[in-house]
Amino acid sequence: MAPPRYPDQPDEPPVYTGAETTGFVSPAADHMDGPLDLSQVLDLRRPGRFAVRVFGEALARRGILPDDILIVDSSAEPRAGRVAIVMLGGEVLLAQLAWRDGQWWLRSGRAERPPLLLSEEAEIWAIVAALVRERV
Questions:
Q1: What is the torsion angle, in degrees rounded to the nearest 10, for the CA atoms of residue 115, residue 128, residue 123 and residue 47?
Q2: Quick one: which H or E segment has residue 16?
Q3: Of residues 10, 7, 27, 9, the one with CA closest to residue 18
């Protein structure tokens, strides 16, 4: 059930423009950005761009934590060092790509796991383009 609305309560929160200050006007007001549109910043309207949520801690050492949101691009070319979402045997893996001896390898963020050779059955589904974290 939604909370009750009152006549003087706006539908949208006010946007700070810098004009509501007391005292003198800031000389930096000319350089203030407006509200950010994350769909524009992250280019989410581009075909092949998706947001996916992270489960597990495989790449925590790389700074990718559980519940983070990854912006992935299924049209991006794989490159060594990039983080990718890989489909392998019905599983979805998140790993760092490595190119060695003319073949793709998957590197986990866990030091105890050796790199895994990417077999012909595996598919590099998307490359991670950005990370969004809801809680800091």
A1: -170
A2: none
A3: 27
C-alpha 52: how far from chain center: 8
Per-residue model confidence as pLDDT tens digits over 90-110: 899 999 999 999 999 999 888
> Would the CA dihedral through 127, 129, 135, 136 be positive or negative?
positive
pLDDT in tens, 58-97: 898 889 999 999 999 999 999 999 999 999 888 999 999 9
Q: For the domain made up of 38-132, give the CATH fold.
A: Umud Fragment, subunit A (2.10.109)
Query: Domain ranges in the chain?
Result: 38-132
Report CA-CA distances (Å) from 37 to 6, 42, 58.
28, 9, 30
Q: Tokens 């963020």 identify what position?
A: 109
Contact indicator for 132, 38 with CB cutoff of 8 Å: yes
Structure tokens at 130: 């950005």
Classify residue 64 by burial, with Cβ atoms within 10 Å: 0-12, 13-18, 19+.
buried
